[in-house]
UniProtKB/TrEMBL annotation:
This is Sulfatase. The keyword Cell cycle does not apply. Residues 5-343 form the Sulfatase N-terminal domain. Residues 212-237 are annotated as: Disordered. Residues 219-236 have a biased composition (Basic and acidic residues). Keywords: Hydrolase, Metal-binding. CDD domains: sulfatase_like.
Amino acid sequence: MSTHNVLLLMSDQHSPYIMGCYGNDHASTPNLDALAARGTVFDAAYTPSPICVPARASLATGRFAHDTGNWDNAAPFTGTEAASWATRLGENGIPVTTFGKLHYRAPEDPTGFKNQVLPLHVKNGVGDLTQLLRGEQPPTPGLRAMVEQAGPGESDYTRYDRDVAVAAAEWIVQQPSSGQPWCAVVSLVSPHYPLIAPVEYYERFIKEDLPPRPGSDPRQWDHHPAPSEYRSKSCLDEPLDPETVRRATAAYYALVAFMDAQMGRVLKALKDSGQTENTTVIYLSDHGESLGSHGFWFKSTLHETAVRVPMIIADAAVKGRRRCTTPASLVDVFPTMLEQFGVPLSPEDKGIRGTSLRRLAREPEDPERQVFAEYHAVHSSSASFALRRGRWKLHHHVGHPSRLFNLVTDPDELHDLAGKPEFAPVLAQLEEDLSGIVPPHELDVTVKKDQAERMERAGGREAVLATQFAAPYTPVPAARA
């Protein structure tokens, strides 16, 4: 068994486009950039679903949402859907300690993550019931307000993230005396909304001329019916005024910088305790952030801004900076964790979807590796699926035309090629590849039936509608004494 430790650092809603090691000179991420400089950076990493609960279930289980049934933010992971990588490590004598946001159902569930410090789980153990309404959910002015309220200050989440970082740092420095390999997850909420950033960070970025995301100009917006529904239901059809965009962009950059500083606190504890050389560190996020591209804010679309995530793996065996162009996914974390500790897959794990990140980094690069994402949640009348292979990316929407993008010549997905005859063979092949992973229409029917049943158990449509004006954010646990 490996004597190495593993430290998984995780943020929420961090776009790789707002990060120094991914080429953004305006971003302030010195601690994560230093991690990237001594490790492997995955240039094309993806979430299996661009919303919190499904993404985090996939991260834990190495399976897609359609494998586990964690479709939306009202279907939190319980541990009964499939074993997590933490379960497998625990079975082999390697406990996993978590600090911060997990966004599962409850601490007592058999998720395998037994040692939870300051855990943040879905609200009331049920999550956001309005997600069950899908396309029937009324427009939500509160989403637009979340962007308009951006500015300086402190929120429950920034205070919580500081507490999480302090707790994790204190725990790490106590570990050398144990003499046993350890595994820890440090999961922060930042840069997730609210876009309220500590003053010292916000003031740095509000003074800068930050570039808008490509596709922000309303003349470039994606008007396909599926993403247009999301934008309309989010009350974002009317462009935000320039001052609001400036404040929201500055606040997001500031929250990224704040998050990086908290990760720096944890990494400093690792270094000061002399454990950097025998600890593999992984950094990633659950999904991205649109930040105004195509008029979208938040996540919940198939666009690169929402489905791309940062991903770095570093340990003493990696000398110097290396980029990996092989597409990667959060489902790759499950086999990575088992490989790091020399734990074999059990027979029940044969259905996992991923490949070890260490293997992807070691082997010849494979830009043709397929990666997949799906969406079955808020403000979506029907299921949406993304499939990338090489330069090509398919957007498949049940009930609406599919789209095709060339990510080499059109990385911002501004030009749909699906209607051009010369690209028909490429589109047909990707559609066939998608059908080999999941039957889109049949799955859409299955998911909607499940969501309707859960809505009835919650009291019916009117009862669920009545929850939409509740507090928009998951409450944080009480601070440690």
